[in-house]
Each structure stands twice: as C-alpha cells, then as structure tokens.
Write a structure and sequence with these properties.
The structure holds two protein chains of two kinds. Chain A is α/β, with parallel strands linked by helices. Chain A has nine helices and 18 strands. In chain A, helix 3 crosses helix 4 and helix 5 packs parallel to helix 9. The longest helix of chain A has 17 residues. Chain B is an alpha/beta fold. Chain B folds into two domains: 223 residues, HUPs (Rossmann fold, 3-Layer(aba) Sandwich); 31 residues, no CATH class. Chain B is globular, with a radius of gyration of 22 Å. The chains are: A alpha/beta, B alpha/beta. Chains A and B meet through helix 4, strand 7, strand 9, strand 10 and strand 13 of A and helix 4, helix 5, strand 9, strand 10 and strand 11 of B.
C-alpha cells in the first residue's frame, strides 16, 4: 500500500475535445495532488484520443497515460475495465477520479471490485483529511435528504464527481508534461458485449445541461399543455425546460427533462421553479443553480427555503404575467 | 428463463422530508414514526423488468433480500407482484455493510442458487444511493454487466438491451447469463393483484444465514466493509427567500420580473 502515489483522472472526450467534466476533474485533482505533494495524472482511453494528451497537460496533468485502440472506440464495460486495471497497476495511484456520467458510474464500481477496493459515486466535495491523509468523499445519500462523508482504506481510493461541481484550471499551453503510451492488449474474446447502436436524443434549442436559464415545472403544472407556457418563457430567455419526476412519469414532458437525483444534474445561472414543491430528490439536481426563483401557491413549500425570490400564488396567473413583463423589460 | 432479482427493505423515500432525522451520535437515520418501510423503489423496477420477461417467455423469478428485521409483509411484495421464490439473507452479521460486503454476500447466495440467466438489481438503492452492488456482484461472479437499463428483449440465449446514456441511449447485445441494473425508464412497476397477495401470504421465504452461503462473519456486514462512514448530516438550507408582494399573483409576478432585471439576473 505504501507504494501507491499520486492522483489520476479518468478522462472522457466529447466531439474530439476533452469533455468539460475532464477539465473539472483535473482542476479538482490538481488541488488534491498539491495537498498530498504528489503528481496529477490523466488517462485517456479511446480511439484517436492521443492528440488530446497535450490538452490534458494544459489543464493541469503532469503525466498522461494514453490507451489508443480502434477496439476502444465505444465505451464498453469489459474492455474499459480491463484497460483501466492495467493502467492503474502501472501508475499505482492513491486516488482515482472519474466523472459521474453514464460511463463513470458504470466503470467506477466494476473497476473498484476488480481492484479489490471501493468507490464513492456522485461526490460533491473531495478533500484530504489532514491527519490520516485519506480522501474525504462527501456525497448525497437518502435521495438528497442527507450527505455522507466516507473514507476508504484500500488503494486506490476511487470517487466519481458530479458534473459542474468542480472548477477547471485556466488552460495553459506552456505547461509541460510526460505522455505515456499504454498498449491496450485486449483479448477480443474477453469482451462479451457488443454495442449495436448509439442513439442521441433530439433536442430542440438549448440542451438542458448547457442552458443558462432553466424553467422547470412540477406536478402542479397538471398537463402537457401547461408545459407549453413554460416553453414560451424558456424560449424567450434562450433557456431550456426541465421538470420534476411526476410530469415525466405522466408523459407531459420527455423523460430526458427530469432534473434530480434520478435525472439530470444541472447548475444554470437562473432556475425558475414553477408549481414544484422542491423535494430533496429534485433539489439535489438543481441546488447548484446560481439563483433560484420560485412560483408556488403553497407558502410552506420547501422550494421557498431554497429560492432567493418567490411569488406565492397560482402559477396560471403568475407565469403569463412574468413572461409578459420580462418580454417588455428585455425589449426595452 | 431463470431470473434473480436483488431487493432491499428501506425507509420510505417518499416520506415527508420534515420526518427525516439523523442520530448524529450513531451516524444513523432514525426511522420516521408511523411510516412503514418499503421495498426499495429502484429494486421494484428490477422486479418489473423480470416480470416483463416472464410475461413474454415464461420462467422463474427468485427475489433475494439481505438484512435483519425484514418485515414479511414488506419483503414479500415481489411475490405478490408475480415472483416465484423469496430468499432472505437474514442475520445481524449482514447489517451495516457497504457495497463491497453486500455484493459479496449476494454473490455467494446467487452462486448457491446456481442456475440463472439474468440477475437484476436496481441501478442504486434509495437509501445510500451507492450504485455499486450490481456491478460488484457481476465482477465477483465473472458475469458481463450492463447498468442503467431501460428496455430488455431476450431471444436465442442473448439479451438485447437499451442502456440510458447522457446523450440518449445505446443498444447493446450480450450473451446470457448477464447482470442488469434497471433504471426507472423501464416503466412503472405493476401493482400486486389480490390473487398475488393471497399467494404471497401462503409462501414461506427461504432463510439463509452466513454459514448457509459459506461466508464468514468477518467478510460480511460492517466487518467486511472497505469504506468507513465518518459523518452523516443534513445540509443546512439558507432560507433567505425574498417573497415578492403584489395585490394579485399577476402583479407579484410583474414585480418579480422587475426585480430580476434590477438585480441584473436577467
């Protein structure tokens, strides 16, 4: 155990670039590495990812392990677990960070069990314990009703981190680092699954995760038609529409609009919460928003404990008036 | 088709947030008064996924649950929904475990059951939201695993599944046996029928102790854990909401628009 050293980040790419979560992880990882007085590394796994190694260095990595192989084009549990096992055994880090993405949350636990260690998924905060030097892993539990701080005494300590909770470093192209190529050495017979098709959800306008303004509705909206009024405001503010779980379950909005512990995690500049009570489950998907504004007829609704501004009243009356007034103000 | 579903008894996650209390001395959640525990809702999606396959192809479904103080009326729900057998890993030694020790015990129980084509778990449980036991069982049993699944079709010894991704979904083909963790997009779990409830009442669960599945007390529960819970706490809400007044909701909303503009939020 004594020979484990350093922090390593599992990098993801998107559209030929480092994914935003990867730069966030490097930002967080560099702080942890500095505190430990150790190195920060990154791993890039995929097909045609070698060129991004320099990017990872510009965002803070001292070392980048690259596993570039045509067989790794799509994420597959078996293949990626086996490649990561190999990299981790070579790099021997104390800490491994991944994103809480559809890849990270699949890879982290499988890899943790393979390496006979443990992982914490969906962390909001990571810090080094001053006395034990172990990684303090803070994550929401009980559907966001509580938070827990975990440590793990087996190495590497593995954590996945929620998107948009960590700050990336400034990109610095003059940074120097070492690039290490690792051979995938995959046994095709060891890969039992086959990805037949990847389907991207069609999104009109701005993606929920990228939107600066999100207009979100709850059970109180009552119908698909009701949501068209939310869409109108969202369109005007160049934002996106979100929802709590009941509107998704009832088919008023697509399942992809769900925000919460079981849906998307977002952190827009402005979150306009309409006719939703603000359950812990839902809030853990949007509590990172800069400003929350609530419209609800129940003055006791939990959402008013989270919001900065609120209107107590029927949304059917308040929302059109809000939309109209904003239209007037923003035009003027 | 032989299917196994891992389930769990939990504090009702739909209980009002105000009833949620923590005993900070023991780092434990205090079960809310007068609110009955439930089967973990994510695990119920797993039961539903298995029942959909049983509807189409026939087969046998065995539910497994781990813990102590498992209330029979609660943990029998999968039987009432249409599952065939219930195995309870029931002993205080199983308590206080983390993902590692829980997956280990479940994997050993599944091994003892022997024949299976698909093992189902919820994508996570509503209490600790760990999201690891499914993948852990698969790794311990050497099975392929597919997580966050929303649709499953089985034919010719293979499963064709749809897995939810950040962008949409992907279609994956995998030979059986396989471990699948199920996401809520699979569809609402069915309600137990009266006939199902009557049948479940008569059915006695199989109880296994650690020795029955060949594990030592040191490998399971709190003793077998890799992680340590240092602290459990409720995040503090700021509660500094400025309620915008007005003669009517319309007027208040217009004032809100004004306020957002003045505060340069929009």
């Amino acid at each position: 155990m004594a020979e484990n050293k350093g922090v390593i980040v599992f990098g993801e790419t998107a559209g030929g670039k480092l994914a935003a979560i990867t730069t966030e992880l490097l930002g967080c990882g560099s702080k942890l590495a500095k505190e430990l007085g150790q190195e920060l590394s990154a791993v890039l796994v995929g097909s045609g990812v070698s060129d991004l190694a320099k990017e990872a260095i510009a965002f803070g990595a001292d070392k980048v392990y690259v596993v570039d192989d045509a067989q790794l084009k799509d994420y597959q549990t078996d293949a990626y677990t086996s490649v990561m096992e190999k990299v981790i055994k070579q790099a021997m880090p104390q800490i491994l960070l991944l994103g809480q993405t559809s890849i990270g949350r699949d890879l982290a636990p499988r890899l943790a069990f393979r390496l006979k260690t443990a992982a914490s998924l969906g962390c909001l905060e990571l810090a080094i314990d001053p006395s034990s030097k172990l990684l303090l892993q803070t994550k929401p539990v009980y559907g966001g009703n509580a938070q827990a701080v975990f440590t793990c005494e087996t190495f590497p300590q593995i954590a996945t981190v929620r998107v948009k909770t960590m700050e990336p470093l400034e990109r610095d192209q003059s940074r120097k680092g070492e690039i290490i190529t690792v051979d995938a050495a995959l046994e095709p017979s060891a890969i039992k699954t086959k990805v037949l098709e990847k389907v991207a959800e069609k999104v009109e306008g701005v993606r929920l995760e990228d939107a600066e303004v999100v207009v979100s509705g709850g059970r109180g909206i009552g119908s698909e038609e009701g949501f068209t009024q939310l869409e109108e405001l969202a369109r005007m503010l160049k934002g996106a529409v979100g929802a709590t779980r009941p509107p998704c379950d009832n088919g008023w909005v697509p399942a992809g609009a769900q925000i919460g512990l079981t849906g998307k995690i977002i952190a827009p500049d402005l979150y306009i919460a309409i006719a939703l009570s603000g359950s812990s489950q839902h809030m853990s998907g949007c509590s990172g928003s800069k400003t929350i504004v609530a419209i609800n007829k129940d003055p006791e609704a939990n959402i008013f404990r989270e919001a900065r501004f609120g209107v107590v009243g029927d949304w059917k009356k308040a929302l059109p008036a809000l939309t109209e007034k904003l239209k007037e103000l923003l035009a003027g | 088709m032989n299917m196994i579903v891992c389930i769990k008894q939990v504090i009702d996650p739909e209980a009002p947030p105000a009833s949620f209390k923590i005993d900070s001395a023991s780092n434990k959640v205090v079960p809310p008064q007068g609110v009955s525990p439930v089967i973990d809702p994510y695990a119920e999606y797993g039961v539903e996924a298995a029942l959909k396959i049983k509807d189409a192809l026939g087969g046998k479904i065995t539910a497994i649950s781990l813990g102590s103080n498992q209330l029979r009326d609660i943990v029998k729900k999968p039987l009432a929904m249409g599952a065939d057998e219930l195995v309870l890993l029931e002993d205080e030694a199983f308590d206080g475990g983390d993902s590692w020790s829980t997956a280990y015990a479940l994997a050993m129980a599944i091994k003892k059951l022997g024949e299976y084509d698909i093992v189902f778990c919820g994508r996570e449980a509503s209490d600790w939201n760990a999201g690891q036991v499914g993948s852990g069982i698969a790794e311990l049993l050497g099975l392929p695993s597919i997580t966050l699944v929303k649709k499953i079709d089985v034919s010719d010894g293979k499963a064709r599944v749809e897995r939810v991704t950040d962008e949409g979904y992907e279609v994956i083909e995998v030979p059986l046996p396989v471990l699948i963790t199920v996401s809520n997009e699979i569809g609402e779990p069915r309600y137990p029928t009266i006939k199902g409830i009557m049948a479940a009442k008569k059915k006695e669960p199989t109880i296994w102790k650690p020795a029955d599945i060949g594990v030592e007390a040191s490998q399971i529960g709190a003793a077998g854990s890799h992680t340590k819970l240092l602290k459990l706490f409720q995040p503090v809400r700021e509660g500094k909401c400025e309620v915008i007044e007005g003669e009517s909701p319309e007027e208040a909303a217009a004032n809100l628009a004004q306020k957002l503009r003045e505060a340069k939020i929009l």
